[in-house]
Amino acid sequence: MEKEKTVVLYPGLSVSHFVPMTQLAGTLLDHGYAVIVALIDPSVKEDIAFGAVVARLAASMPPVRFHTLPAVEDPPKLTHDGQFMLRYLDLVSRYNKRLHDFLCSINLLIFSTDSPSNEALVVTKRLGFPSYTLFTSSAATFVAFAQLPTVLAEGGPSFKELGDTHLELFGLPPMPASHLLGEVLEDPESDTYKAMMALLCRIPEADGTLVNTFESLEARAVATLKDPRCVPGWVLPPVYCVGPFVGSIADAEAKERHECLAWLDGQLDRSVVFLCFGSIGTGNHSEEQLREIAVGLDKSGHCFLWVVRAPASDDPEKPHDPSANPDLDTLLPDGFMERTNGRGLVVKLWAPQVDVLRHRATGAFVTHCGWNSVLEGVTAGVPMLSWPLYSEQKMNKVHMMRDIGVATEMVGWQQGLVKAGEVEAKVRLVMESEEGRELRARAAVHKEAAAAACDDGGTSRLAFAQFLADVASRQDRALQ
């Protein structure tokens, strides 16, 4: 192991950030780098599923050293509520001393963290290490994040007050202000708002940003990031589009094939609608919403594979357990399972999403618009029905529809309930109509482009090579 080629990765405490970071680790290993993944103890997050994912992926990557930093006193517990990001940023800040001591104990070449953990750049800048951010969402979202701290006029309305007024951000399609992150829709005097804006202002402090995307998928956004008009007065660090990092948590599971794949084997090509709403269960649907989905699927007449989780409790004192087993007999309408037997399959809690999307029988994907899921749909060539739930997913929805052109919208999500008639109508649109065929055709083009980007000589391969060359150049200058 060459100590001078050691890279430390510092992933965030969520599946959607942790998995792409481990995929970056695999790419660095392929290029001859020693990789250490430094971790804040996953147990500080009240999410059994996340800790299990960390353990499985660590066990599946023996060449990578996983190092858990020593605990801090009385760490804040991370539950998914309106204060999550504020507590998370506080936690990262409190771990900076632990991170500092660890980095001083090794011969480090590169440090990389994900964007919510940019507070760690305080440490690496003090120590003089090259420091990069892995941005696990789209280049378009990165454009928006870079502009948000400067977009509001002095004394003008806040993002919250703008409501559904469309924002005209440079290089992006118009987007309702209400689609922004919940943290910037808070009162501008709130601690949450101030902390989020401070985090976004750290974007230029990294030596560069690796984005989990590929150039042809987001040509407009990538060009915008290179344009000095993107953020007047700021010089953005170099951006490297090195994705798509697409993989399955199931890669670290037992090799047994999931039962839903055998069921898909018996279905016609592109005949099945797949419904799945993320890996952590944060946006679990209410009982009422589950019933509306069921009725819509029943009336659509199309085959479906639906991943169902138990609704969150209405009791604020009772923390939500995303691994809770749903009682389908109670949650779904009477007779639903019998009426749809043969053309529908309901799976509890989890399905191997990458494998399902790539199966020949899958014809459409109803998704919460998390960027990892979007990329998994794109690389499988599957058209999507967008149903955003939280975080930047509302922004992704606009991008999927307006720039990428692979999705249509499930209307009603913003009011908190998508009706059965909408589910039926949109399933029929994607599976039966000319508009659905056009979505499928564009999805097929992006699938081919994604493969080409990752091939020898492809844009993502070249971008990663440029990233490594820039790191080497920076190291040479430091030694002079």
TrEMBL record:
A family per Pfam: UDPGT
Keywords: Glycosyltransferase, Transferase
EC number: 2.4.1.-
A GO MF label: UDP-glucosyltransferase activity
Record Gene3D superfamilies: Glycogen Phosphorylase B
Superkingdom of the source species: Eukaryota
CDD domains tied to this protein: GT1_Gtf-like (cd03784)
PANTHER family from the UniProt entry: GLYCOSYLTRANSFERASE
Family membership noted in the UniProt record: Belongs to the UDP-glycosyltransferase family.
Name of the protein in question: Glycosyltransferase
Annotated source species: Triticum aestivum (Wheat)
